[in-house]
Structures are given as structure tokens and as C-alpha cells.
Amino acid sequence: MDVTSITNSWFVVALVFIITVAAKVARSRTLPGAKKTIKTAPPSPPEAKGAPLVGVLPAVLSRGLQAVIREQHRELGSVFTLRSLGLAVTFLIGPESSDHFFHAAESEIAVDDVYKVTVPIFGRGVGYDVDLDTRNEQHRFFAKTLRPAKLRVHAHPMVHEVEEYFGKWGECGVVDMKHEVDHLLMLIASRCLLGKEVRENMFDEVSSLLHELIGGLQLISMFFPYLPTPAHRRRDRARARLEEIFSQIATARKSSGRVEEDMLQELMDSRYGDGRATTDAEVTGLLLALLFAGQHTSSTVTVWTALSLLTHPEHLRVAVAEQERLVEEHLEHNHHGSGDGAVVDYGVLQQMDFLHRCIKEAMRLHPVSQMILRRARRGFTVRAKDGGEYSVPAGRMLASPLVVNNLLPYVYKDPHIFNPDRFATGRMEDNAGAVAGAGAGDLAYLAFGAGKHACMGEGYAYQQIKVILSHLLRNFELKLESPFPEPENMLSMRPKGKVMVTYKRRKLFCNT
């Protein structure tokens, strides 16, 4: 077994132990009414065969988690259970079996246990440190900051940051696309989320603090998040300093009466249902939650989309042609081609239909995470694709594996092929679940989740990814020099290693 295999194996072991701990917590917190006896209950989901105690762990270590899930799906159907080290996880595959998982009330299906590890990062009083009612109100704050009217405001500064960044590239060169995208997205975030004070005066310090904060999320953090390790101490110092920075910015704005059009200002101005204003600590935590979710998703998806286009020249040509057409139409309509943001604005971004489908297809083939986890607070009955019904007990850990759901051949034709046209009008394969009578048309495509916990930042993510990729398509000829990468490991689906790309500036358009 080589070093890469050993590393991946340890990530699998880590995942198993993490879920085991969560499951034990879940069982201890099951609602009182959950053990009520059902007179005639369907059978339990079929279980994969495995060795005593360790269960399927040897198979996962030798063949990989994705392979094991796919094997059991073929053998046992769309609902089945994997056991290992005393833990049982029931997998729900396909839109037919996923309705309760995504649409049930929080009292039925919970997410809080899975994300408790984020509390030391985001801080007390936000996210999964608060009760459901408070968390719902904070989600309302997010929804307000991410509505289309606000996205329109953010389009110009996004375009400005992208033009300025790529304007510093030479006529030709070689870059690591992962590094370039990560840095650029941090610049965009500092402008649109964190405030121009951060972008203009303390970008380097805040970037360093965020790096320390992320570095505090390690394997030991899953079990002992408050253990005074060096990484945790750096995390806590970074979190305290970030709160100090944003408190100073908020105080300065309030004292001067200055109001900015960024998400920091939106969260500062937010009010709970009882009229209470958000505290500086809450604003910091909510900002960090937005930043973490947005940066990871957008960075991963931007690079995978670029990789997919560079390895499929037929689709790359269509994407470039779309850019040429839209820019020409926009310039003709406005009778000019100069000025910041004149070529690409919010309206033009919304018309990038083929690029949108390319991004969507890249996320289907390369999801940001392998699976979505939940916990059953109460027992429920699930219907499998073949019509059979099974009883899932209270306290059971549940998984919706995107790496399988996204490749179902009865939903997606030739599911392993990159084909953005599968989402074109008139075809729309992601609605096949409803067409096939599954009755859950929103559950065939799950890149941004679905139901009560669907990602509210979908529009923001698409917008900033389009701004970056559309600029590259218009202004550069790109060629992938590295081999097409595998995902990093069993927990992260980012492209592994450096993604080396050669670029050559071209003059297809003016002032783009």
C-alpha cells in the first residue's frame, strides 16, 4: 500500500470514528416519544455483510468508500445499512427514497449534531450553538443578504476584483489554478462580505487569521474541540482577534454614520424578531460561517469546472462563443465598451446559460462533499425504488451519498460523461425523478442540498464563479499541463495537488 493509499485509509477511519461519536451522542438525545412501539412495522433496511465488530471497514480500506457504497447499492437496492465498530449508517439513494431525509421537520430529521464541531470556529451564540428558533432567525439574516437585489449590488465589485487580479498576469505564463482561484476568491470575499476596510487596509492580517482559524480544524478537533492543543490555541486567538477587528469596523461605521453595501453592514443592521440587534460576536460568527461555506464551495467548483472545460474542447468552444455573443450584444445595446464593469454586469451574468450549465455539470461529477449526513430524531418508514418499505429507527445516522446519487443511470444518461447539455431546456435530466413518477423532482440534483437545509448561497456561488470563469474564457487561451486530478481524499473533494495551467493572453474583446 503506497503513501496515498495509507493517507486515504486514515481519512476513512477518521470518518468512521467521527460518525460513531455523533451517533452515540444522537442516541443519548433521542426524543422521549421515539421508542413508541409500532404494531405492524416494515422490516429494517437490508445490511451489508461484514466481519464481526469491524463490519465493512476492511472493505472500505481496501476498495474505498465510494466503491463499497456503489457495490451495496447494486446488491441491496436504494436503501441499505452499513455497520462498523458499533455504528450503523443507513444510506438513502435516489429521489424516491430521499423525501423524508430532505423535507422532514427538524423535530424528525436533525443536522445539528453533525456540525457541532464548527462552534469553536464560528463562536458561541451562532449556528449550531443556539436553539432552532434562534438559528432560523439567523438563517433569515443570511437569506436577506443573499437575495437577488443584493447579488446585483455585488456584481460590480466582483467584476472589478477579477479584472484587477488577472490584469496583473503577463502575456503568457504558467500558474497553479487552485492557488490563483483561492487568492482571488479571498479578495472578492474581503470586498463583498468582510468590508472594504478589510480589503484596503488589513487584507494580509485577516487572511492570515483565517488561515489560523481553518488550521484549528483537525482530526482531534472532532473528538476534543476544546483541548488546549497548539492549533486550538492559535484558532482561539485568531477568532478573538477577528471579533476585535470587526467590532472596531462596526464601531467606526456607527460613530460616523457611514453605511456600506456589504454583508458586514447587512448583518450589523439585522434584528431578531423581538427587536434585539445582533452583537459584534454574532456578526463575526455569521460572517465566518458565510465565508467558510462560500469559499470552500466556490474554490472547489471553479477549479473543477475549468478542468472539465479544458479537457472537453467541444464544450470549451461553445463556452467561448457564448461569451463573445453576450459581450457583443451588451456593447451594442449600451453603445460603449469602456469603464469599470461596462462589459459584464449582473444582467449579462444572468444570461450566461451555457456557462451556468457547465458549472452545474461539474458539480454533478465532482460534488464538494461525498455525502450529506443527518440523524433521525424519530423513527420513520422509507420507500425504496423497487417499492419495498423499511423501518428506520430513531437515533440512526443517515447518509445521502452525492457520489452515487449524481451518477444514477435512470436519472442521467451516460452519467460519467461531462455533458452540460443534459440540463438544457427541453431535456433537464435533473427533473427525471418527477418525470419517472418518483414525486420528488427537486431531489435528483443535490449539489446545493434540498428542502429545509438547501444552501441559501447558491446564487452568490454561481455569480462569483461565473465572473471568474467568464473573464478567463474571454481573455486567455488556457491549457492544462497537469494530469487530470483525483479528489484530495475521502473527506475533501478538492482536486488533489497542484493544477498547473499555461495561459496566453488574447485579444478577442475590448475592455473585458
UniProtKB/TrEMBL annotation:
Keyword Heme: yes
Binding annotation for heme: C455
Subcellular location: Membrane
Sorted UniProt keywords: Heme, Iron, Lipid biosynthesis, Lipid metabolism, Membrane, Metal-binding, Methyltransferase, Monooxygenase, Oxidoreductase, Steroid biosynthesis, Steroid metabolism, Sterol biosynthesis, Sterol metabolism, Transferase, Transmembrane, Transmembrane helix
EC number(s) from the headed UniProt entry: 1.14.14.154
Transmembrane segments: 6-26
Gene Ontology molecular function terms on file: heme binding; iron ion binding; methyltransferase activity; sterol 14-demethylase activity
InterPro entries: CYP450_sterol_14alpha_dmase (IPR050529), Cyt_P450 (IPR001128), Cyt_P450_CS (IPR017972), Cyt_P450_E_grp-IV (IPR002403), Cyt_P450_sf (IPR036396)
Required cofactor names: heme
Pathway named in the protein's UniProt entry: Steroid biosynthesis; zymosterol biosynthesis; zymosterol from lanosterol: step 1/6
Annotated catalysed reactions: a 14alpha-methyl steroid + 3 reduced [NADPH--hemoprotein reductase] + 3 O2 = a Delta(14) steroid + formate + 3 oxidized [NADPH--hemoprotein reductase] + 4 H2O + 4 H(+)
GO biological process, alphabetically ordered: methylation; sterol biosynthetic process
Cellular component GO terms held in the UniProt record: membrane
Membrane topology category: Single-pass membrane protein
Database matches in CDD domains: CYP51-like
Family from the record: Belongs to the cytochrome P450 family.
Job description of the protein: Catalyzes the 14-alpha demethylation of obtusifoliol to 4 alpha-methyl-5 alpha-ergosta-8,14,24(28)-trien-3 beta-ol.
Protein name: Obtusifoliol 14-alpha demethylase
Organism: Oryza meyeriana var. granulata
